[in-house]
Design goal:
The chain contains nine helices and four strands. The chain is 53% helix and 7% strand. Helix 1 crosses helix 3, helix 2 packs across helix 3 and helix 4 packs antiparallel against helix 5. The protein has a two-stranded antiparallel ribbon with strand order 1-2. Strand 1 and strand 2 form a beta hairpin. The radius of gyration is 19 Å and the shape is globular. By secondary structure, it is mainly alpha-helical.
Length: 230
């Protein structure tokens, strides 16, 4: 394996790790984001081609895609999925293919649903990043529409019923009794529950009304729109 190939694989894995661990989204460990490993790889490679600056650039580009998905919503309603995904993928002069745009955006819409199912006590608008705010707005558009078909073509944004039931059946547990130096008895009634680190809210971070800010940006004229406010 050449050095160039090794570096490309390492970059792909770094981008995956970054995107899979965004707070406010939930992917099952060892399960591909889109459901297929090869599809994940193809999409990450295409995303990296659009944003060659690495993991941070990939997350920024995904933020652009989520914003564009909200801004292009009426294209989906009026013209159908193909025109919609083409328009989203070409945001900011991009060339992301229709299928890659669709599979990436919908994987993250489902990841937001999965997170809210896993943590039903969390308010859906309690959000720490503008990316997740755009994601939540898009999820709510789909939920308000209630449709899985647009102009005769499917848009698979909704989690399957079986997956929702599986997520809801997972009961977080925490330590209630120390049995030995490195062994604890776990219970769902513990005061401090064990959850993946990526699911923890940043401590001491001031939270702006990111849902309100995202809505303002979505409604702005395109030339004035800044997807990553400071």
């Amino acid at each position: 394996m050449t050095t160039t190939t090794t570096e490309a694989l390492e970059m792909r894995e770094a981008i995956k790790k970054r995107l899979r661990n965004i707070h406010g989204l939930h992917f099952f460990d060892k399960t591909p984001m889109t459901g297929r490993d090869q599809r994940d790889n193809d999409i990450i490679d295409a995303l990296h081609a659009e944003a060659p600056s690495g993991p941070v650039g990939a997350e920024t580009w995904l933020t652009h895609l989520m914003l564009a998905s909200n801004c292009c919503w009426q294209i989906l309603v009026n013209r159908g999925p193909d025109s919609f995904w083409n328009s989203v993928g070409q945001t900011k002069g991009g060339r992301l293919a229709l299928s890659a745009t669709r599979d990436l955006v919908l994987a993250f819409v489902r990841a937001r649903q999965r997170y809210l199912c896993f943590f039903p006590q969390k308010a859906s608008h309690d959000i720490d990043s503008i990316l997740v705010a755009y994601n939540q707005h898009l999820l709510e558009r789909f939920q308000e529409s209630g449709r899985m078909m647009y102009h005769g073509s499917p848009v698979n944004w909704r989690l399957p019923t079986g997956e929702i039931e599986m997520v809801e059946a997972i009961t977080p547990q925490g330590p209630v009794k120390q049995l030995s130096r490195n062994k604890f008895e776990l219970s769902s009634g513990a005061k401090n529950l064990l959850v993946p680190a990526r699911c923890l809210s940043p401590i001491g971070k001031f939270k702006h009304n990111l849902m309100g800010l995202a809505e303002e940006i979505i409604q702005e004229p395109p030339r004035q729109r800044e997807p990553m406010p400071h």
